[in-house]
């Protein structure tokens, strides 16, 4: 029997993870951020490859958008979408609680 996904299931799948919440948190508090600025501002040691993968997932989910200015040299920025702004209260609650640590620990255990 296939379980029906709830809003909670979908939210946790889209927002939770070691890096997604941190990326969204940064973009919620900045107007637009370039790739390397975002990478440097995230606590932890995120590689460019992982950041790129997580950004693509967040774009696919409609939470952030990529702005390509088509200039030379190339300039690309990322910013939160109106849909992505709906995660603000969820992330604020996680920030204030220990839940963020619990979710990160569970993900690490699942990957091991």
UniProtKB/TrEMBL annotation:
Record flagged with keyword Transcription regulation: yes
Keyword Magnesium in annotation: no
InterPro entries linked to this entry: HTH_HxlR, WH-like_DNA-bd_sf, WH_DNA-bd_sf
Pfam family, one: HxlR
Residue ranges annotated for the HTH hxlR-type domain, each copy included: 6-106
SUPFAM superfamilies: Winged helix' DNA-binding domain (SSF46785)
Keywords: DNA-binding, Transcription, Transcription regulation
Domain of life: Bacteria
Protein name: Helix-turn-helix transcriptional regulator
Organism per entry: Halobacillus amylolyticus
